[in-house]
Amino acid sequence: MIETRAVLDVTTLTALANEHGAKFVVLAGPASKLALLAALTKSGLAPSSVRRDWGVLAEVLANPQPPAAGPVLIVWLDPARLDQADAGTFRSIVRNAATKRFAAGGGPLLVVAGPSREEAIPMPDVPPSIRRLGKIHHVALIVTSIDASIGLWRDMFGLELETVMDIPTDRVRIAFLGVGESKVELVEPTDETTGVARFLASKGEGFHHVCFEVANLSEALIRLELDGLELIDTVPRRGAEGPVAFIHPRSCHGVLVELIEAPGGPTWTSLGYATGR
Question: Residue 119 — very low, low, confident or very high, per pLDDT cuts 50/70/90?
């Protein structure tokens, strides 16, 4: 069994299986034992009698009968999706079966496990109404120390440091670094009682939220609420770089989403901003 962190190229592996006359099976990221067994049954490697029985699977893989006999190449995409205990059991079955098949001359059994392209480049599963918004204004990262983090993002990665400021109302210190038309925001808590501080204590440094820029924030909030999303802020409020509002992660599959109004938008004047940044 081969485990890899490289993105698996199914097309290339298919060609390799055909070249060696091997039966080719793709396990498309099964998330349960039943889904895995069902995929093996559908492929013809296991009979329908497998059902929930690991023992039957172990027997048929170790002592294959036509049409499952001969060389077999299984591509197991995104193995981390499967329950850890079930994944461990399947790995053990494969190793034992491969050894027995080789000893009996039943043809090699090889499993290649690793990420698919979709798993390797995860995208937040946000609702379609969010995807219709404007460009990504920034991605926010919680850090222990902005001064230390700037050493990575500015000095090592070459991002342009735009500003560092304290936000007393939110009890945080923030920094913005430009990258293309978007930014990276670093957020350092200055008070241990805040939500940001609790996030840092429980989850450590890392991704906190994504912010989209919209032309008219008030209109966007009304539309999103009509679409059924749960808003943390039902009206715009002042943010470091313009009027902002947040959407609850419960409505965005665990992703905290911020909206910011583009410079000079209708909410800027009412919240006391200048007409531009």
Answer: low
Closest CA to 176 of 201, 150, 157: 150
Q: What digits encode the pLDDT tens for the residues 37-86? A: 888 888 887 777 766 778 888 888 888 776 667 788 888 888 888 888 88
Length of the chain, in residues: 277
Residue 207's DSSP bridge partners are 141
CATH 3.10.180.10 domain span(s) along the chain: 128-270
Residues 6+ away with beta carbon under 8 Å from 100: 62, 63, 106
Residues 177, 184 contacting (CB under 8 angstroms): yes
* 172 closest CA partner among 159, 190, 186, 156: 190
Measured CA to CA, the distance from residue 3 to residue 112 in angstroms comes to 6
Q: Would you state the pLDDT for residue 66? A: 67
pLDDT digits (tens, 9 = 90+) for 214-270: 988 998 888 888 777 899 998 999 998 999 999 999 988 889 999 999 998 889 988
Q: Over range 26-39, report the average pLDDT.
A: 85
Q: In this predicted structure, what is the pLDDT of residue 122? A: 47
Please, what CATH class does the domain formed by 2-120 belong to? alpha beta
Contacts 24+ apart (CB under 8 A), 42-49: 44/68, 45/72, 45/74
**Domain 128-270 class?**
alpha beta
Domain with CATH 3.30.370.10 in the chain: 2-120
Return d(Cα 7, Cα 232) in angstroms, integer. 37
Cα 276 from chain centroid (whole Å): 35
DSSP H helices in the chain: 10-19, 33-43, 54-62, 84-104, 117-120, 128-131, 146-153, 195-203, 217-226, 266-270
For 4, 30, 50, 66, 92, the CA distances from 75, given in Å and listed in that order, are: 11, 12, 20, 21, 16
